[in-house]
Amino acid sequence: MSTESFQERLRVLGIQTLRVADLAACRSALVELAGTARALVDEIPGLTGLGLVPAQDPWDAEIGISEAFSAAADAGAVALVQAAGSPRRTSLLPPHHVVVTSADRIRDTYQELVDDITRLDPPPTGVQIVSGASRSGDIESAMIHGMHGPRRLTVVVVG
Amino acid sequence: MSGTSPASADRGEVPRSVAMTDAARVTRPHPAWSGHDLDPAQRPALRSMTAEAVAREGVARTRMRLEVLGRERASGRWLDWESELRDRGAAIRRETLSDLDGYLAQLVAKLESRGVIVHRVSTAAEAREVIGRIATENGVTLIAKSKSMATEEIGLTPHLTERGIDVVETDLGEYIAQVAGERPSHIVGPALHMSRQDVTDLFSQMKGEQLPPEPDVLASFARERLRADFRAAQMGICGVNFAAADTGTLVVVSNEGNVDMVTSQPELLVAVMPVEKVIPRLADIGTLVPLLCTAANKELTTAYQTLLNGPRRPGETDGPSQFHCVIFDNGRTRLLGTPQEEILACIRCGNCQFSCPVFRTLGGGHAYGTTYGGPVGAVLSPLLGEATHDRDLPFLCSLCGACAEACPVKIPLDDLLVAGRADYEAEQPTGLESIGWSLWGRLWSTPVLYRATRWATRIAGRLIPAAVLGTLPVARLWATGRTIPDVSHAGERQRAANRHRTGTDGEAR
């Protein structure tokens, strides 16, 4: 139930979303999405060794791939942990950000996503909650995409 | 994109701001009272500031933009689910205020247990000095800053600039205001007083060539310059929306992603917050973030909510290695236990500003001559610091009450504005003005004398041109910033109307 409403909400927010059956299908989807783009890839269990082109300079990366530990259908939000294998730059520096989340991590409400964060023990260095691509309305309220963070966000739901 | 970055740090040079390069070329004129360096003790009288504000070029367009934004937000009309959120949010903020000291102590202990260096200070001067020391002791020459009204309040950027440090605002609206040399004109929309043509002119002057008036192109120009600064800055400064006492988590909301840059790429981070940003539990952001974003921008959440738990840990590749948190008071805790403590519940959404007809008519918050404009500013600014400045701000209000309806945490802003007026009046020395008022009271209590004042006004109106009337002593006090009405027929129409309606001469009333 919440997977459908989550994906529907993402579409409303202008976020591309894919649903794949399992990790193997997820691997091929990620390889296809990345193509030959210089990539920053977080350590995601089951998704190591994708064989993508590594970005030598993170500021020069073209795509970043990270994993969400929780998601909220009502807000179209995903939550990422900042830790040793998942630095903040992955979701921030490249113009295209891809988030992988397992369908069983999707909650109905933002409050439940926040509750998931409060249960992380010990609390991580940081958590980033993402709902849509980077944007700004500071020039006459005209919507500008990709202000400082990614211009494009793709959420891949597994399962 | 990295090709445009100076990468000066890599060459061992002292990093300087790329984003502010050639900002000195900008010649956009603006009144002194909208400037970033306005001294609150030296600001002009409200009457002249507001008169200039309503006559400022482009103010009508700004007013229209603000009215559209106010309508889109339907300020004060809360849907059922929004009302529930509002009830919960209002309760959480009151719970915080019921034991502010206790929650602050808990927050500080948690932050310190994670390696955050906490500085609790009393005054605005102490707050900016401690941040200046952190910067100079670490040899900082370039600071990337995300949006924070608290840093505006303590006058941080001018303080750091005086010490030879480049400070660059990275929120697009704040950057525009900074380039123009102005203060933010709205809490969440710092450049709302500017049109796209204004921004085009500013950026074209900096670039030295004409840019097209297209938001995407203008944003790209800013993005490339600011990206160089994100990369080279040795220190980041951010504000705080909510600080959870139970976990020591600092929460910052943004749409642009600049907060994540500022809090993760530089080696040093300073988070700045006034005392009332504390909330009891991290779980409360499940209510407060959607409430803030709904009120501020009619969206359930912003694009990013950044949760910070402390400095970089071993094995991590980004995040600050040194993490400071400056918590300042600046007159706030003095308000606890008084009716004015309600203003400390504010979550800085800016909705009261959109809802306020006076704010919109003035074309934004500059003409309040203080950090915080609009209803929240008219209540809060007079109470900050030593509570000696801006005491007359509650008079920038029509008492329509829209702000209280628009407030997501149910602050009775209208009541507080009335109370602020009473405080101001009580402080006024009795002098010539009060003698004048009592004389006027006596004159108009007697029908014959009342009529005599009107005859005198009519005669004066016929004999003396309006331009001259406005320069006469006493009349001049009232006439500054106003248009003198035609008084050559003062009272006549009213008398005729009364006679027509009642069949009597109702003049005495």
Provide structural commentary.
The complex is a heterodimer of chains A (about 160) and B (about 500). With about 160 residues, chain A is of the alpha/beta class. Chain A contains three helices and twelve strands. Chain A has helices at about 1-10, 25-35, 110-120, and strands at about 15-20, 40, 55, 65, 70, 75-80, 95-100, 105, 125-130, 135, 145, 150-159. In chain A, the strands form three sheets. Chain A has a six-stranded parallel beta sheet, sandwiched between helices. Chain A is globular, with a radius of gyration of 15 Å. The model of chain A has no long low-confidence stretch (mean pLDDT about 95). Chain B is of the alpha/beta class and about 500 residues long. Helices cover about 45% and strands about 10% of the residues of chain B. Chain B is built from 22 helices and ten strands. Chain B has helices spanning about 45-55, 60-75, 80-100, 100-115, 125-135, 150-155, 155-160, 170-180, 195-205, 215-230, 260-265, 285-295, 350-355, 355-360, 375-380, 400-405, 415-425, 430-445, 445-465, 465-470, 475-480, 490-500, and strands at about 115-120, 140-145, 165-170, 235-240, 240-245, 250-255, 270-275, 280, 305-310, 320-330. In chain B, helix 3 crosses helix 12 (about 285-295) and helix 9 packs across helix 10 (about 215-230). Chain B is globular. Mean pLDDT of chain B is about 90; it is low at about 1-10 and about 505-509. Chains A and B meet through helix 3, strand 9 and strand 10 of A and helix 2, helix 8, helix 10, helix 11 and helix 12 of B.
* Order of secondary-structure elements of chain A: HEHEEEEEEEHEEEE
Report how far apart the termini of chain B are: 75 Å
Structural class of chain A: alpha/beta
- Shape by Cα distribution of chain A: globular
How many helices of chain A? The count is 3
Number of strands of chain A: 12
Proportion of beta-strand residues of chain B: 5-15%
What labels describe this entry?
heterodimer; A: 159 residues; alpha/beta; 4-stranded mixed beta sheet; 31% strand; B: 509 residues; 22 helices; disordered C terminus
